[in-house]
Amino acid sequence: MALRARIAGEAMARHVLANESHIRPLIAIAYSPGAHAGVRPGYRFQLIEAVLEPLAQSYSQGELRRLELALATVISAEACLTLKDVCGADDKLIVDNIGWTASQLVTAFLPRKD
To answer: I need a labelling partner for 109 at 20 to 30 A (CA). Which of 60, 61, 65, 94 fits?
Structure first.
């Protein structure tokens, strides 16, 4: 499951970085007064659903919702752009970091196998 999360995180980061010139204005529009939530595509949520799908039978809706929100915090355009603009990370480091962080969230969520 952690590998799925890493792949999803890396895919989102690559997508954002490849389309940065279109994504930045879209984010600005989405956050402007009167904007509708549907103005932004839900690409990340499709990726997150693919991560959560194999866990659906083993965990409660509440548990999965918490993991979904945690992953949405990391697998996001905002995370990519913050790492780039505020932290000064290059594209390779951004992709690696977001993938790694997403995998760590899932690893922390899953029960330990001792």
So the answer is: 94
